[in-house]
Amino acid sequence: MSLLRFTAADLVKAPSGRDARRRRADRFMRGIMFVTAAIAVVPLIGLILYIITNGLPFLTSQLIVNSPLDIEPGISNAIIGSLQLTIASIILAAPVGIAGGVYLNEFASPRVSSAGELLIDVMLGTPSIIAGLFAFLVVVPALGFSGYAAIVALSVLMIPIVMRTTQEVIRLVPAGVREASLALGIPVWKTTIFVTCRTAASGLLTGVVLAVSRGLGETAPLLLTAKGTNDTEILNFGSTMNAMPIVIYRYSSSPDSLLIGQAWATALVLLVIALTLNVLVRFRTVNNRVA
Amino acid sequence: MAITKENRFGFGRGIRVDALFRILFGSAVVVAGILLAGVVLSMVVSSLPVWNIQTPLSFVFGDRWAGEVTQPDGSVVGNYGAFAVIWGTVVSALIAILIAAPVGILAAVYLVEFAPRRLAAPLTFLVELMAAIPSVVIGLWAAGDLSIRLRDSVEWWVASTLGRIFPWLAEDPEAPAAQSVFRAGMVLAIMIIPMVVAISREVIRSVPQSLREGFIGMGATRWETIRHVVLPAARVGLTGAVLLALGRAVGETIAVTMVIGNAEGIPSSLFLPGQTIASKIASNYAEASTPTETGALAALGICLFAVTFLLSLAIRLLVRRAARGGGQAS
Predict the structure, then answer these.
(1) CATH assignment of the domain containing B258
(2) Chain B residue numbers touching A23 (CB-CB < 8 A)
């Protein structure tokens, strides 16, 4: 995509006056643009190095295996809590998101479809703290700070992600595939599930993975709902629950240097998970684009 | 589908199932709509107790968050002023966007127009990876590392030069504040740059190659081509990218909470701690016990939601105008 290697302006020999100025401006701006690209990347490298150097010494097997109440405290309940909350939320959000995305693309009239897209846009633009506030105002008064409230908050954030991705990949399924199936007398619902969705399956999975990765990393909505706890009970969504982002946030402001170290180590774990999920998704998309 | 009559091949059953199927899938959209409506309604309803004791105008423009005040005559008056947190939100988001927009757009231009393919692919990959990092991890790094570096470099330099002239850029060189609005803005900038780069890249790539070739053929340098052809052609899309990033900056919570200092009131200088709407909600929800205290936080939520909602609408109008051919984006 880059431009021709030389432009006519470059070929003028020993330019003087105006042309020299133009050439200098060109070089200068090229330098500036290179610097901006570097600025966009340097923070990532700094962040990764910082989290690794500070987190690695504290990343022991006790940290992963033990609970905060053990003699050698760990964050096992936060890891399990994060998994439970994310899985429970995606079980709710994925069907709604996929079904909604499919409906908007396959069945909705243009008017409904455009309204639906506006709905997705607005939901995608809604800050995560607002989703947390929603669960805090609606679910917490009824059930208290609980896993259920956290699931509601996370679902609000996940549904539009799944829906948007679904919509985008379903749009790419060639019309001929559907028409061939319908021409064989296969009902619309079978065609939609076993032909259209099947063709786009890897794309649908991408949306789900993106939503999972968002859910694992969210902090603010969890603080307002699951709140964090030292309890280690599993599948107890009715009470407060722990999660990795909560641990990072709470421990980072603690005066205890062990806890601060654990915050870094937890951040390292979370970072590795988030980056792995993202790289997985990206490899898929790149492959699809090439194919 | 014009098939309406049942027949003996059992197609009728299939059509009834189809109808059910559509209703089922359509209801998913309805569920999403109900959730969004619930988000808005829950905040509006919860904020009602606040409007009983004070006006929305005094909420938005009041500069002190003082809670309820009992008047001498026994009546209770609300004294929730959100102006300081709104100020903090606007200022930190502005700092972020003023840095992220030029940096992100120029970086995208570099990636598309100049970077050799061997460099462009890994750079793009790294930039997009940054967007995947959870904000609490960015906050942890920002609070422990970046914010101190910024304090000792940019902030110190600006404060000791411009700060002598403008009081809103001043800082005590002996005892710089542990947290500041400026640093929050910088962290936000770093968080939204990947977003600006990713969208700008797509937009710039979609500018037809022939436009560039035509201009270069007339003897223009590459920078002149970008300045006079590529950027104007991509204007609408780039505006959309910046608005989207602005929405993200306005709503970002945890990373900001970890570096902005959460101090009440409007700071006299950018290098002093402040507060944003999101960080206020995140740091105050635990103490909210009465309906009015919760209601005041819900009212803050309404302000924040209104801003992001308007941004979403603006982006949509922009994209629609561009699609209709009114804009110059192709």
Answers:
(1) 1.10.3720.10
(2) 221
